[in-house]
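Re: [ENG-882] Designed sequences occasionally contain unexpected residues at chain ends

Forwarding the minimal case from QA. Structure tokens:
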């Protein structure tokens, strides 16, 4: 399996309820507030139970983490997007090349802040439809849907 994608991503998804922007350092403060206020909720989200993140870090450490994701985007090593409602960060989605054939054409994880928990299912459905639609080259994706 390749550790990077061999294509550029399509234009970010926009719906009436939310829109995506490639995660960048301009999101640092809003991203930090979103996930630090929601750590237990994120840990309970499918795909994060055994993941090393989220864990306490400083705003500066978060900025470095975001810069790493932004570089991965440029390098096609993964496509990470902020999920926004207007200017408020309400979550994040990570689209990565599969490490195993059973992970399909892409491995996907997403989270929403605890205060927007009701948005999780509709966002997950919209992301799944977008990634399996005509704009992406994926036929199958691995997207954890339960504990």
């Amino acid at each position: 399996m390749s550790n990077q994608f061999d294509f550029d991503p399509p234009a970010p998804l926009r719906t009436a309820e939310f829109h995506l922007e490639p995660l960048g350092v301009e999101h640092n403060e809003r991203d930090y507030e979103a996930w630090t206020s929601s750590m237990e909720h994120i840990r309970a989200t499918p795909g994060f139970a055994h993941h090393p993140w989220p864990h306490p870090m400083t705003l500066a450490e978060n900025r470095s983490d975001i810069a790493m994701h932004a570089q991965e985007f440029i390098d096609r090593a993964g496509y990470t997007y902020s999920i926004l409602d207007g200017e408020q960060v309400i979550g994040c989605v990570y689209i990565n090349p599969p490490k195993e054939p059973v992970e399909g054409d892409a491995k996907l994880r997403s989270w929403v802040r605890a205060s927007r928990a009701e948005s999780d299912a509709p966002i997950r459905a919209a992301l799944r439809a977008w990634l399996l639609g005509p704009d992406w080259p994926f036929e199958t994706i691995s997207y954890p849907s339960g504990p």
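QA comment: On inspection the terminal residues look reasonable. The first strand starts at residue 19 and ends at 22. Proposing we downgrade this to a documentation issue.
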